[in-house]
Amino acid sequence: MKTWCHTVWALLMAITLATACGDGSCYNNGSSLPLARFYTSGTTTTATVTALTVRGIGVPGDSLLIDSAATSEFFMPLRATTTVTQYELTYGRGQEARSDTITLRYRPIPYFASHECGAMYNYEVSDLECTHHVTDSVTLAVSTITNAGTVALRIYLPASNQ
Amino acid sequence: MTRFAITCLLALLAITTMAQERRVTPVRPETNTVKPPAKGTDEKIIEQYLSGDTAKALAEARKDSLRRVYPRYPRLTDLALAVNFIDPLLMAMGQDYASVDVSATLNMWNRLQPVVEVGLGWAKTTPEDQNFTYRCKPSPYFKVGANYNFLFKSKPHYQALFGVRLGYSTFGYDITDVNYHNSYWQESAHFNIEGERSHALWGELMAGLKVHIFNSIALGWSIRYHGVFNYAKTEHSRPWYIPGYGKRGGAIGFTMSVYYTLPLNRDKWPQAH
Predict the structure, then answer these.
(1) How many domains would you assign to chain A?
(2) Which is higher by pLDDT, A123 or A1?
(3) Host domain of residue B198
(4) Residues B59, B46, B70, CA angle at the centre, nearest 5°?
């Protein structure tokens, strides 16, 4: 009887732990979007850019993702029909504005996340490039971009450009 | 002085002797008689009593009394075959998936019941607010476990059960008609994810009731608390539905079964039942 009770108790604990990992709702994004966050060069401190403009190169109508706004992070939607996406990041306004281009090469992977979040593309990034007019460096935090909403790109800026 | 000493010694001796005297409690005659067996005692025991073997008769009477309070069923009491049919009913009412299984339950001592369940599960859903159709082909699943019948003193016709199960399924599924749209880049894509394979291992705790309806037919209900211990995911997906389990993220399941019971060793069942 004691063994029986121990078995039931162990199973109850195991099932409770197993159901704790359930995904009844979509707590993540409905799409896989790489989140880019700014950091001060040589530190792990988050930086805020006072005036940032972000534009996808080749986007229909030259539409802007961010228009001269203060921000410390932003989502960069990737193209699913090609394997390369480029973004132009412009720091500052008017005559003093300077731009850098970030290029991502990747493999789009069709992915079914869950009943609640739906189907989307994940992106397995193979290469990352950046010009260095303002940006010190860009690093990849994860190799596969999913809908988890975690930081995928770390953009390091000199302290003078924040 | 010598006389006084001798008197004291004699007095002391007399007191000691009085103190050591044993008192015998008289035995009343009726305590030596053996009481006759109670009404309703088995005829065989009464015969033993009448034959003069009262000690054996009393021992047998005690056993008989215990048997009446605590009936012992044979090791193989009965075998129940069941069909769980709740999911097809729920599917008819709009549920996106279903599992149908048959089970065999061996009732041992009317208390412990090893169970084997075998079934098929399938699913098809196209959520209105989503961009896909998920389809799981009919796939097999297996469960093994045991029940404990809390009403083991009563007839096997009525049972209150608590049980555990370990389930396993291997299955295939497709996600089709996916419409993907990127509003910033203004591009759309249409794709299918087909031929996905997975397997899952899970555990269940169940509480249920079984009620005799007529002849050998009974109905049973159970509520099950379950969790997935392990499942396989692929590069393109994680399964949404697991045959025999339900939605992968769900924790509660229900069953409703119709039973056909075959009594075993019927002659060894307690006579009162």
Answers:
(1) 1
(2) A123
(3) 78-268
(4) 50
